[in-house]
Write a structure and sequence with these properties.
It is found in: Cytoplasm. By secondary structure, the protein is of the alpha/beta class. It has twelve helices and eight strands. It has helices at residues 12-23, 38-48, 58-61, 72-85, 102-109, 141-152, 165-174, 176-193, 198-219, 223-230, 236-246, 249-273, and strands at 5-8, 31-34, 51-53, 65-68, 92-95, 115-119, 129-135, 155-159. It has an eight-stranded mixed β-sheet, sandwiched between helices. Helix 1 (12-23) links the parallel strand 1 and strand 2 (31-34). Helix 4 packs parallel to helix 5, helix 7 (165-174) crosses helix 12 and helix 8 packs across helix 9 (198-219). The longest helix has 25 residues, at 249-273. It is elongated, with a radius of gyration of 21 Å. The mean pLDDT is 95. It binds NADPH dihydro-nicotinamide-adenine-dinucleotide phosphate (NDP) and (2S)-3,4-dihydro-2H-pyrrole-2-carboxylic acid. (2S)-3,4-dihydro-2H-pyrrole-2-carboxylic acid is lined by residues 98, 170, 174-175.
Length: 276
Amino acid sequence: MDHSIVFVGGGNMATSLISGLRSAGHDGGAITVVEPDDDKRDSLSRDYGVNCVANADGDTLAADVLVLAVKPQMMRNVTQDLATRMAHARPLVISIAAGVPLAGLRAWLGEELAYVRCMPNTPSLIGAGATGLYADDSVNAEQREIAEAVLATAGMTAWVAREELLDAVTATSGSGPAYFFAFMEAMQAGARELGLDEHTARELVLHTALGAARMAIESGDDPGTLRKKVTSPGGTTERALDTFADGELSQLVRKAMQAAADRADSLGQELLAEKS
Ligand SMILES: NC(=O)C1=CN([C@@H]2O[C@H](COP(=O)(O)OP(=O)(O)OC[C@H]3O[C@@H](n4cnc5c(N)ncnc54)[C@H](OP(=O)(O)O)[C@@H]3O)[C@@H](O)[C@H]2O)C=CC1
Ligand SMILES: O=C(O)[C@@H]1CCC=N1
């Protein structure tokens, strides 16, 4: 029988994970979503055949797994409220929130529970997600396997050895889809300026992104090697890459990722410092 899973928060990321679980054959009847918004509850029930409730009671929370999927800024209030309703429930807790430290979750929801922190990303919606996970010694091997199995239905998974490395995961794969989408937007605009119609620009850009990602994964060659194979000496690609270098693209990307990691860290500091 499938593990019973309760999602607290039925927004973008929970929907992505639920889609991954359902596509992997997880029983919809074993999944419950706690979500205050009527429309979101209706569409989650309709699209994925899961149970939806506006509020969690002790029975709802008596599941094998509790996935915390609310915004980081809401996590303290939500978990402190859940703690009053937990009764005898002892689920494995999986938090997907950016920056919310285990120390905070333990203090707000309960010291005695086992916690896994992870950072998935939105391509989980189509089973192409990438998730980093972290668990400390309070989580046993079976619980680690359960957490990994839940996230693996949404794509690839990788454990990190220290909690602070989740900030690096957040800056890499958590926020990463948005970087690639921004690059696609810029390329589409460039293609339009060069005279292509909107549909053709979109199709060429998206299929180029897909082809490049698939080639990098399937060839086993590193991206630098593949880049050189496209770049004929004195040709067109070289001109474009020289323009990127003039604009210090590589440094800019590293600076952006550092900013994302710093924000994940400061979110956590702010949440821990908040008065209850
Ligand atoms: N989006 C992303 O790419 C990623 C997000 N994350 C993390 O996932 C978490 C969720 O993000 P995301 O899905 O984008 O955010 P959303 O705002 O889409 O989802 C959060 C949901 O929680 C609901 N909610 C609010 N209060 C409660 C409550 N008391 N009980 C239950 N549900 C409640 C919100 O409802 P309402 O809208 O009505 O307030 C909303 O539907 C965040 O912590 C984020 O850091 C992690 C990886 C990637
Ligand atoms: O932007 C954010 O804060 C969340 C975390 C990673 C992706 N989205």
